[in-house]
């Protein structure tokens, strides 16, 4: 039997409460998953707000629906609480600098996109120029789970940049996918 066929060792037992060892192990195991990197943006009044995320997913094809996980205590979540729409810009492999800039803690609440090239989606919310894909969503639900809130949006329009490889996150670093 090859090592990859051997049973996995789970830590801790399912009935054990979450502790520091489990949290550390969870972060390590979850860090092994390759995740696309995106920027979520919304308008607070007329001011654009944005943050880098790697926890988002397509929920349904009918109706087209996306969800994104945002830290509940963040300024971005405060903005998403009152926003009617959001964009999810899946960054291109060459946009690592944007991911890092918008992922830094302590970003200013206003002007965060002043140095980032953007366009307006049909909803009026900005999206990142040159992104591999963009989803323009009407926010339909917010569901608080543990320390984060899942913000759900019905996709009203979407687009892709053909031939552009997406930026990916793996083991606390950035990269991209290779051809098939």
What does this structure look like?
With 180 residues, the chain is α+β, with helices and mostly antiparallel strands. The protein has a single domain, classed as Pnp Oxidase, Chain A. Helix content is 15%, strand content 42%. The protein has helices at residues 20-30, 75-82, 96-103; strands at residues 35-36, 38-44, 47-53, 56-61, 64-71, 85-90, 118-120, 126-128, 133-145, 148-160, 167-170, 173-176. The model has no long low-confidence stretch (mean pLDDT 88). InterPro entries: Flavin_Rdtase-like_dom, NADH-dep_flavin_reductase, Split_barrel_FMN-bd.
CATH architecture: Roll
Largest beta-sheet details: 7 strands, antiparallel
Write the CATH homologous superfamily. Answer: Electron Transport, Fmn-binding Protein, Chain A
**Tell me, what is the CATH class?**
Mainly Beta
Structural class: alpha+beta
Helix content: 10-25%
How would the global form be characterised? globular
The overall strand count is: 12
GO molecular function: FMN binding; riboflavin reductase (NADPH) activity
Domain Flavin reductase like: 30-176
Organism: Brevibacterium luteolum
Keywords: Oxidoreductase
List keywords for this structure.
15% helix; alpha+beta; single chain; 7-stranded antiparallel beta sheet; 12 strands; Pnp Oxidase, Chain A
């Amino acid at each position: 039997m090859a090592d990859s066929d051997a049973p996995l060792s789970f830590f801790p037992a399912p009935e054990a409460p979450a502790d520091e060892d489990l949290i550390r192990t969870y972060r390590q195991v979850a860090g092994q998953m390759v995740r696309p990197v995106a920027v979520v943006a919304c308008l607070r009044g007329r001011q654009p707000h944005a943050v880098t995320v790697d926890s988002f997913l397509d929920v349904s094809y009918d109706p087209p629906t996306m969800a994104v996980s945002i830290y509940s205590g963040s300024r971005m979540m405060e903005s998403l609480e009152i926003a009617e729409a959001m964009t999810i810009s899946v960054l291109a492999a060459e946009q690592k600098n944007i991911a890092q800039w918008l992922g830094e803690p302590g970003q200013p609440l206003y002007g965060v996109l002043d140095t980032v090239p953007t366009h307006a989606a049909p909803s009026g919310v900005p999206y990142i120029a040159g992104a591999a894909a963009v989803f323009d969503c009407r926010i339909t639900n917010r569901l608080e789970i543990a320390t984060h809130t899942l913000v759900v949006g019905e996709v009203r329009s979407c687009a892709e940049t053909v031939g552009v490889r997406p930026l990916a996150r793996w083991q606390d670093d950035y990269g991209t996918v290779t051809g098939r």
